[in-house]
Amino acid sequence: MMWCKNFFSLALIFTTFFAFAGDKPVKDKVKSFVISGIISDANNNELLVGVKISCNNCEKVFYSDLDGYFYINLEVVDSENMKIEFSQIGYDAKSIDFKELGGSPSNNIYIDLKSK
């Protein structure tokens, strides 16, 4: 009789636990990408320093270095439609859709900004 009480108590505990256990939310897959390249002036091919590089779906902002190079490490959710914008005072901003990079940028990209 004692084992019966223990069995029912144990069964009640497991039933209660599994009754309140819900489905876990499905997280979107996050992919990491490295985008690098060179930014230059479209008129004279001079490398541009301090160009602001931002994206619409992330909170990070990057800048080109003293040689006009940039290196970005981004985490992208598959369902996002991300655009990367390159801007600097005195130049027209240029925006690139992440899809234009083929979804998996692996080579350097070259950005040329036109002066205003």
Would you give an account of this structure?
- The chain is built from one helix and seven strands; from the N terminus they run αβββββββ.
- The protein has 116 residues and is an alpha+beta fold.
- The strands form two sheets. Strands 3-2-5-6 form a four-stranded antiparallel sheet, with no helix packed on it.
Topology (SSEs and partners):
Blueprint: H1 2-20, E1 30-41, E2 52-55, E3 61-63, E4 69-77, E5 83-87, E6 94-97, E7 109-113
Parallel strand pairs: 1-7
Antiparallel strand pairs: 1-4, 2-3, 2-5, 5-6
List keywords for this structure.
116 residues; alpha+beta; Immunoglobulin-like; three-stranded mixed β-sheet; 1 helix; 7 strands; rod-shaped
Give a nutshell description of this structure:
The protein has one helix spanning 2-20, and strands at 30-41, 52-55, 61-63, 69-77, 83-87, 94-97, 109-113.
Number of strands: 7
Distance between the termini: 90 Å
Count of the domains: 1
Percentage of residues in strands: 35-45%
> Could you please say which CATH topology applies here?
Immunoglobulin-like
* Model regions low in confidence, pLDDT < 50 over at least 5 residues: none
* CATH superfamily placement: Carboxypeptidase-like, regulatory domain
- Sheet with most strands: strand arrangement: 3-2-5-6
Q: Please identify the top-level CATH class.
A: Mainly Beta
Number of helices: 1
> How does the helix and strand content classify structurally?
alpha+beta
Q: What value does the Rg take, in angstroms? A: 26 Å
Largest sheet, in brief, is:
4 strands, antiparallel
Shape assignment: rod-shaped
